[in-house]
Amino acid sequence: MSSPELAEWLSWPSGRIAQWITDQSRPVVMGWPFNGTRRWYLVHRRENPEADDYLTTIIRRQAELHRMVFAHGVSVIVAPGFGTELLKRGSTYTHYILGGLLQLADDSVYQEMFAAGVQIRFYGDYEGALNTPSLHPLLQACAQLTAATESKEGPLLLIGLFADTPYQTLARLSVEFAKREGYPPNRQELIEAYYGLAVPDLSLYLGFAQPSLFDVPLLATGEEDLYATLAPSPSLTEKQLREILYDHLVTRPTAEISYESLSDEAQEALAEYNKRYSGATLGIGRIDPLTGIWNPILPYPTTPKRSIES
């Protein structure tokens, strides 16, 4: 299938992009932790004094963006949520943040998505973490949402809860599988045991600020493409999403370059690029003295004589 130019891709309706992606040989599985939310809400509240409370606003914004991602043909969103570190912040904060699980079913955008066929599942060691008298209603909410959408056949939203230390769970599932089936599980069988259904390999992972990949047990293969937004996750724009999908699906999968066959002009351009960015590293940052926030140091801007693919 021929690939569109970027300008054409950006002008397409989302439905056409979704169809183009659906026609590819592999589904797009997007890992996307929703990070930087408190920073985003602080600015949002300054600009919108009448805004709802933090939790309601974030859930609505996340729902809107999940809807946008699915509308562009992404088959699975793997959304790492809370890790065990959350439990160290005190019961009041823990109950407040986890209380957002109770609002998922009531949010009108999520209701619209579920009615349209979106499935929702939860993964991680949340059953143990939430199995206390005060948190049990949250566990029930997860079970009710799962049951209400398990017969759907649309895109899949996987929300990770306490999936940062999965090792004992994976070991237990492996032993249980071996006792039941008479042989140890392969990777796909263990994925299905852990997530409760078959999940394709991770395609791309979109972080925020500090490049990192976390809380997607078994799904990473080393072939996924990594991206990081400089603004908090709730600031993601449709154009930004389209540029990421285009880079992942069209730009990066280009054929391997034969360096020996490069023309003299191409070799000169390559030498200029290497010289221009020698010593520059993506992912290094500094603490802003005013805000105390880690900000990335971007390679210094230059105007190259000619552009090349790195």
Label this structure with key terms.
alpha/beta; 6-stranded parallel β-sheet; 8 strands; 2 domains; globular
- Uncertain parts: 304-310
CA gyration radius, whole angstroms: 22 Å
CATH level 1 class label of the largest domain = Alpha Beta
Classify the fold: give the CATH topology of the largest domain: Undecaprenyl pyrophosphate synthetase
Please render the helix and strand layout as text:
Blueprint (H helix, E strand, L loop, with lengths): L5 H6 L2 H9 L6 E3 L5 H11 L6 H18 L4 E7 L8 H8 L1 H5 L3 H8 L3 E5 L2 H4 L6 H14 L6 E6 L5 H15 L5 H9 L8 E5 L16 E5 L8 H14 L12 H13 L8 E3 L6 E3 L14
Parallel strand pairs: 1-2, 1-5, 2-4, 3-4, 5-6
Antiparallel strand pairs: 7-8
Task: Summarize it.
43% of the residues lie in helices and 12% in strands. It has 310 residues and is α/β, with parallel strands linked by helices.
Descriptive notes:
The protein folds into two domains: 13-165 and 200-251, 3-Layer(aba) Sandwich (Undecaprenyl pyrophosphate synthetase), CATH 3.40.1180.10; 263-310, no CATH class. It has a six-stranded parallel β-sheet. The protein has a two-stranded antiparallel ribbon with strand order 7-8. Helices cover 43% and strands 12% of the residues. The model is unreliable at 304-310 (pLDDT under 50). Helix 4 (54-71) runs parallel beside helix 7. Strand 7 (285-287) and strand 8 (294-296) form a beta hairpin. The protein has helices at residues 6-11, 14-22, 37-47, 54-71, 91-98, 100-104, 108-115, 126-129, 136-149, 167-181, 187-195, 238-251, 264-276; strands spanning 29-31, 76-82, 119-123, 156-161, 204-208, 225-229, 285-287, 294-296. The chain is an alpha/beta fold. The protein is built from 13 helices and eight strands.
